[in-house]
Amino acid sequence: MDLPLVDWMAAIEQEYVETFIPAGGAAVKFTVLTPPLEASDIRQGLKALADRHGLAYFGLDGAETRLHMIDQLFHAIARQVDWENLAGALMRRLLAADGYLLPSEAARCTYPEIAAMNGTSDVDLRRRVRVLLHEHVENDYAMVHEFRAAMLRLCQAYLEVVKAEVTEIESIQAWLRGELKSVSVLKPAGIFQKVGRNLARDMFLSLAHWLKLVGPRGTVLALDISRYSLERRFSHPDGLLFHSTTAVVDVYEVLRQFIDATDELESCLIVVIAPPAFLTDEKRGLAKYNALKLRLWDDVRDRARANPLSAMVRIAGEVA
Fold first, then answer.
1. Contact at 8 Å (CB) between 289 and 253?
2. Selection from 194, 192, 212, 214 nearest residue 203 by Cα
3. CA 54 → CA 22, 159, 245, distances in Å?
4. 3-class DSSP state for residue 17?
5. What confidence score (pLDDT) does residue 296 get?
């Protein structure tokens, strides 16, 4: 049974976005769209909810990102993150909580400016910043080591008058985005490996924790997997990705891992957007991967009404 989009959005807002996600909870929801409803309708609605409640929003489309590769999924999210401003937000909050007066202009938040405002020396301020970062970043084991090392350097660089003096900063951001050719330049920062498949899952969990720590009340991630239902390439290439049946199984495995990681995931709502073929196509649909189907399929359900809080719902564009 189809659920009107407006009803589903209202339920998600009330039960998840308003309280559960900001309080630290995590959930993965699957939405199967009934035409003429499009993925953009869901994504726009989720972004509006995230903006209204102070959550970070990220939207990824399988037509542009290989969602079945967790490292590329993470890199695609990382390209949407303003890493410097988030690091700056944490530094300003930590210093303010420690009793320091801060310049009203973010651009003037530098060691010399803050030291002058508080009648202390640059050396003493740097010493105190090291202690604060050690307590709140280095020792925050909710984040994997490589992520902590990267955020530590970004935070340190924020207060420098000349950001280029911290030589690893551009390389760290390129590393997060998957654009760094050689990771050897990051050895001084304590980073020794690329964000490959073995590390990307922990990096995503770390990012969700980091976002909650530095400002947003949580994260909303929309994943459009509609492109994975495409059975064959177009005779005239459209410039978008085509995914093999092997990739279909891989993306379902990635989604299954997200479901199983909800106990580890912090303040994050993941919404998967799928076409009707997700339920009917035996070659590329949910039937292709039983491990995911067992986590989504309800054996017992109300015949008369759809449950908006189910793990998987069919959504229509009409309002009841």
1. yes
2. 194
3. 9, 26, 38
4. helix
5. 93
